[in-house]
Amino acid sequence: MHICTNMLLTKRYLLAFIALSVSFGGFAKQKPAVKRPKLVVGIVVDQMRWDYLYRFNNLYGKGGFKRLMADGFNCQNTMINYLPSYTAPGHSCIYTGSVPSIHGIAANDWYDNYTDKYVYCTDDSSVQEVNSGRTGGKSMSPRNLQVTTITDELRLATNFNSRVYGVAIKDRGSILPAGHLANGAYWLDDSTGSFCTSTYYKNTSPAWLTAFNKRHVADSLIKTGWNLLDPTKQLYTQSLADDNKYEGKFKGETAPVFPHTVAGLGAKDKYNGFKAMPGGNYLTLQMAMACRDGEKLGEGDATDFLAISLSCTDYAGHQFGPNSVEVEDMYLQLDAQLAELLNYLDKSVGKGNYTLFLSADHGAAHNPQFLIDNGVPAGFLATDYKKEVNTYLAGIYKQPNLVKHYANYQLYINDSVIKAYGLDKSKVKGSILEYLNTRQELSYAIDLDNLNATAAPEPIRTMAINGYNRGRSGSIQMIPNPAWFEGHGKTGTTHGTWNPYDTHIPLLWYGWGIAKGETYNVVNMTDISATLAALLHIQMPNGCIGKPIVELLR
């Protein structure tokens, strides 16, 4: 009797479940109850200083940067909170909400303390390049990234129904944002001018990518060359003269003046030169649109994610510096390109159906020689610190090569030599600090294993420890004086330090779920992924230390 009663109840529950399913049209056909945008578009402008939003503002049109600033949310005081301020850590931080100490991308490349090998951030010898359907040669993957990204978490939160793609000219600019679980990441093969991927994602190129590469867009743009939007040069009031001593030249040029062309160079030089031209950003955005169309991103039931990195601003900045006509024109052309992208998204995904954010991986310094010539203290670090420190230490400890490597403003201690000769590592590091503290070009030298002993103030202390990855960083961090850096000769510029010109970045939000407005509260780069997680109602990446920017959430 008891068994019969249970069976009867079970049948009743089953009938009720079936009736409920029918009345709601079937659970399999139900759309997610959580409201999310159809598509998230992340844009990282490589080497964009925050002040470029305003320095060139009077020349921007209404549809690009100004549209994002007027109709979206502007985080005016967004800061990088780690060292060094380079491309790979920047992209990793934006998409993981973490810092190099945790996410492991200690720089663009580093010396690995466990394997004693030099490592590029996305190197992966276990995979091969895939280019127009062909495979061959070693290639890239995100395996060196030690945590999840917000794009990974979106895939996990939707049981892999969300689709994620990364697009950039730089491999690290597409691979690291797309994360471990991406459906694909694409970057420029600078020997062919076509976009490639690796067998980490798939063994063949999708049909839409093959079709895009067959258009040879890069070659068409190279034939056009780099011409100014205003050939009279009257618009460019924020720049020095077109021909000045602070600018580098393209290969084959006698002077760094417009118009620029690389069309007559060999393949490698031609495509490398093209990467420093506005046409490279146009190519990237055309590729991103082709990816959206080919994969139909934003047309499914689950939220998709398209991560775009615009690399050409960085190449141009390094070559010409922030006071050049080239950089000013680069941003005016980028503004128009962004307007085209926004109009395209309005039509393809639907205005109000996508969320977009725009930020940068780092800023850039003024050229030190330019500052010196104008009476501002500045300089170049031209010393071989590894050689000089080893010479100094050999005079004390009678042993060579106590420092095994120097990179990213860091010295790597040779533990095997110290152990072999029975030396006291703490005393050796103390001697290194004593020597570095005699160098007038350095503000501080920091023992990253003993931060309590440093006189460096905040935020430098926190930025140093946030950037210190025990397996991939040196143990002595050098802090140059403001406006000093390791330069590329006397022309152009670079980045990598703690100073605001390198670490104060733009952060604009626009579209679905974003309130209009702005904040001058300090926002950290680590807060971007935390905010996306809150907006999408998904888990933060597993190494995230950021907090949601609550002011922008509707």
| Quaternary | single chain
**What summary fits the major beta sheet?**
12 strands, mixed
CATH architecture of the largest domain: 3-Layer(aba) Sandwich
Choose one word for the global shape.
globular
Give me the secondary-structure topology:
Layout: H1 2-23, E1 39-45, H2 52-55, H3 65-71, E2 73-79, H4 87-96, H5 100-103, E3 109-112, E4 117-120, E5 123-131, E6 134-140, H6 150-157, E7 164-168, H7 171-178, E8 184-189, E9 194-198, H8 207-214, H9 217-224, H10 267-274, H11 278-295, E10 304-310, H12 312-320, H13 325-350, E11 354-360, H14 368-373, E12 379-380, H15 385-397, E13 403-407, E14 410-413, H16 415-420, H17 425-436, E15 442-447, H18 460-467, E16 476-480, E17 484-485, H19 500-503, E18 504-505, E19 507-511, E20 517-524, H20 527-536
Briefly say what this structure is.
The chain has 554 residues and is α/β, with parallel strands linked by helices.
Describe the protein's architecture and organization.
The chain is an alpha/beta fold and 554 residues long. It has two domains: 39-73 and 84-364 and 498-552, Alkaline Phosphatase, subunit A, CATH 3.40.720; 384-438 and 442-480, Gyrase A, domain 2, CATH 3.30.1360. Helix content is 36%, strand content 19%. The protein contains 20 helices and 20 strands. The protein has helices at 2-23, 52-55, 65-71, 87-96, 100-103, 150-157, 171-178, 207-214, 217-224, 267-274, 278-295, 312-320, 325-350, 368-373, 385-397, 415-420, 425-436, 460-467, 500-503, 527-536, and strands at 39-45, 73-79, 109-112, 117-120, 123-131, 134-140, 164-168, 184-189, 194-198, 304-310, 354-360, 379-380, 403-407, 410-413, 442-447, 476-480, 484-485, 504-505, 507-511, 517-524. Strands 1, 2, 5, 6, 7, 8, 9, 10, 11, 18, 19 and 20 form a twelve-stranded mixed beta sheet that branches. Strands 13-14-16-15 form a four-stranded antiparallel beta sheet, with helices on one face. Strands 3-4 form a two-stranded antiparallel ribbon. A hairpin with a 4-residue loop joins strand 8 (184-189) and strand 9 (194-198). Helix 11 packs parallel to helix 13 (325-350). The longest helix has 26 residues, at 325-350. The protein is globular and about 70 Å long. The N and C termini lie far apart (58 Å).
